Amino acid sequence: MVLGERNFRVFYVGYATSLLGSAMSRIALTFAVLDAGGSPADLGFVFAASVVPQVLIMLPGGVLADRLGRRRMMLVTDAGRVAVQGTLAAALFAGRPPLWLFMLLSALLATGEGCFNPALAGLRVEIASPARLPDANALIGVAGSAAAVLGPALAGGLIAVTSPAVVIAVDAVSYAVSVLALAALRITAANAPTQSPWRDLADGWAIFRSKAWLAAVTLQFALFNLFTWAPYLLLGPILAKEYLGGAGAWGAIMATYAAGSVLAGLALLGRRVRRPLVVCTVGTFGYPVPCLLLALHAPVYLVAMGALAAGAGSAVGGAFRANALQQQVPPQMLGRINALTMTGSFALGSAGYALIGPLAELVGPATLLGVAAGYGALSSAVMLALPAIRAVRWQDPGPARHDLARADHDPMPPVTEPVPQPVPQPTPPRA
Questions:
Q1: What average pLDDT does the segment 289-317 reach?
Q2: How far is the C-alpha of 252 from the C-alpha of 302, rounded, in Å?
Q3: How far apart are CA 59 and CA 342, in angstroms?
């Protein structure tokens, strides 16, 4: 079991704690802005400030993570986020912060996220043995989904008896726990850079271009986020208000999505498949299901079941795509390759929010979600037919590092970067 490996276990405790704090703080931030006299438009500005910098910083963040070391990058960003959330909490305790302060601190927090995520993709191969990387990927997905279920509920209860400032302060503490966990890892320090950052980025681009499956999956999710998932996230609440009963129904649907991801992630532990990208692509057929059910004005329990299927597909796709990337890309390049795929996957979807609202006013939310469902299913079918997707096979890395050490009756050696596998995963859409 991968949790038996010290480095992964220590990291996982800190990472899961920080994810829960972040899930709580997103709810608290909404109420904090509104309590400070902000309008819905002001809230939109704050949300935009929490997204745009993350997309813009991913590429340089991925390059820096590979050059300076993944743990060092994550330590710096999480220490910075302790300061950011601590500052916001102090400002909220002191009174009603101005809108510009909310936007500035949200942008700084998003910048940290944009640096942290590419580094996390590379750190996984340093804290888990190759044979247990699929389980590590599954558990990391479970942590995010569980936080999405528990965080809003905990935040709501805490805000009801205290204030948004307290929840923001809790998030600052959760980042501090992550800092302590990262500092406790026993991994080899990164080698000093031997070439310029531009050369590093060019080398990453060359690897990206050389892998037909990687370019195809990135393009799939770029268009998928634009045409399917962004409409779902924006128009789903509107239809829930129109005919399902409002925010309570939409909250239940999103909680069911997260629950599907948790259950599927746990079911993946110990599972290995011969063609991981084929299984990933089959999982993406779950995403259009809740779109279609909302378009058909299905009752809430059916939409929730569709969301359960989408969440399960998300867990399956994320875990096996991550493992395919880890086996197909030299470990020292994982940060920049993940930055390329994540930037490509999310850029169009983020921009699409500005277009979906006016378009829905022209054709109607249900019609647009029907088109979104059709496109999602079609794109998955096209991907499933591509030879490059079917050609990627699971490569057995041999016994886990811990098992080898035990067989030799020696203590488990410090984790170092594994030898590059024979000659990369965009993350699936997130709710």
A1: 92
A2: 12
A3: 9
Domain that holds residue 288: 197-395+420-431
Q: Are residues 231 and 87 in the same domain?
A: no
Do 114 and 142 reside in the same domain of the chain?
yes
More confident residue, 50 or 289: 289
Is the domain of 180 the same as that of 216?
Answer: no
Query: Based on the domain organization, do 55 and 153 belong to the same domain?
Result: yes
User: Which value, to the nearest 10 degrees, does the dihedral of the CA atoms of residues 82, 88, 92, 97 take?
Assistant: 170
Q: How confident is the model over 49-58, as a mean pLDDT?
A: 84
Return the half-sphere exposure (C-beta side, CA atoms, 13 A cut-off) of residue 167. Answer: 27
The number of C-alpha atoms within 13 Å of 328 and in the hemisphere containing its C-beta is: 27
pLDDT digits (tens, 9 = 90+) for 120-165: 888 888 888 888 888 888 888 888 888 888 888 788 888 888 888 9
Q: Which residues pair with 187 in a beta bridge?
A: 415
Residue 45 lies inside a defined structural domain of this protein: yes
What secondary structure does DSSP assign to 92-146, as a single string? Answer: HHHS---HHHHHHHHHHHHHHHHHHHHHHHHHHHHHS-GGGHHHHHHHHHHHHHH
pLDDT at 316 over 90: no
pTM of the model: 0.74
φ, ψ dihedrals at 130, nearest 5°: -55, -40
CA distance 341 to 114: 13
Query: Rounded mean pLDDT of the chain?
Result: 82
Pull the structure tokens for residue 75: 């330590």
